[in-house]
Amino acid sequence: MIPDIKIKDFDYPLPDDRIAKYPLPERDASKLLIYKGGQVSERIFRELPSQLPQGAVMVFNDTRVVPARMHFRRDTGAVIEIFCLEPVDPAEYNTSFAALSCCSWKCVIGNSKRWKGDILHYFVDSSSPEAQELSALDLTARLISRDGQTGVVEFRWKEGTTFSQVLDLCGKVPIPPYLCRDTEPIDLERYQTLYAHVRGSVAAPTAGLHFTEAVLQSIRDKSIDIENVCLHVGAGTFLPVKSEDVADHPMHREPFTVSREVLAKLLAAHGKVIAVGTTSVRTLESLYYAGVRCIEDGKPSDVGQWDPYVREYPYSTREALEAILRYLDSQGLPELKIGTRIIIVPGFRFRIVDMLVTNFHQPQSTLLLLISAFVGGDWHTIYDYALSHGFRFLSYGDSSLLYRSE
Asked: What are the structural domain ranges in the chain?
């Protein structure tokens, strides 16, 4: 049954001065709140390894943020912002990034009412040191279709440059709008995890922003197995829920990839799986329902928003993961590649993740719903403590280590 949840019950006062507008000088110098068994304590993030159990599996999301926000100009002079969300033609990320003269993406279109469908030209600041190179690209945008603030946009540019290079030259890192500032040079480095590898996200998996090489090495020194999954974070992940009833909130699809090796490690984890970030949680918990599809339909498919709630499932987590492995082996595939729209709200049954490293999230957001589900509804204890003890909030803010409530 789809849970009856009112989003107003997940509100809290967040003063603007508690939102971290910039990262701290050192990634691992942030505060770390620890929640276990209803009790709260605090450390410094670089002490995280001392709080983790030996022999655990720690799962990171190694997606990489792309500079997906570009500005174009109409012949009338109006500036139109185009924010690339996901590729349409070609639809595969790497193939689209490798395109040499043309590709189409689903985009958010800023100032969209002023775009009448004419061909837009990339806005080149003549004072920029790259002005000549940017002009030579001759980058244009054509509107193929529109649905409110989003649309499919075709980009064309001078042949010989990949679209990945076009974005590096013309795009800006899409920092969250609640920072209320333009992208600055510091964001090029700090709005990216050290282990970011697979290009495709339009928002950072921000729990990972705190990790340094020293912290990662300390984790390895405790015989903790570090593994990666990849979920490309979409722009809707951090948006507040606008409908009164959570049941009316549509979740967006996000593609994810999990290797056969990681699936095997999860099978052997024995109750010691630590997820770094809510995107890793959504990926890992989606695996169970992908496995159910393998058992019942013979192959995996995208995980729906309400799949966890619509019926009881008789299969164990082991059975579900083993079913995915059998499917991959039968097809000669090294990894599972599907998508998920899963929403994790109070009442959700966690089947894989035992501990969670995460930042502090916006009021009335799906991420706060996930936190509440993970700690058995006791999110107020955590957030009241953070607000009263000087913790910094949201993407560039402080961190927490949460133990799942039984």
From this structure: 7-65+191-403, 69-171
Angle at 382 between CA 379 and CA 386, to 5 degrees: 135
pLDDT of residue 239: 64
| Count of all residues that appear for the chain in the document | 406
Does the domain at 69-171 match CATH 2.50.20? Answer given as no
What are 98-118's pLDDT values in tens digits?
999 999 999 989 887 889 889
Q: Which CATH number does 7-65+191-403 carry?
A: 3.40.1780.10
pLDDT at 237: 67
- 367-404 confidence digits (pLDDT tens): 999 999 999 999 999 999 999 999 999 999 999 999 99
- Close Cβ partners of 103 (under 8 Å, ≥ 6 residues apart): 87, 89, 90, 96, 154, 155, 163
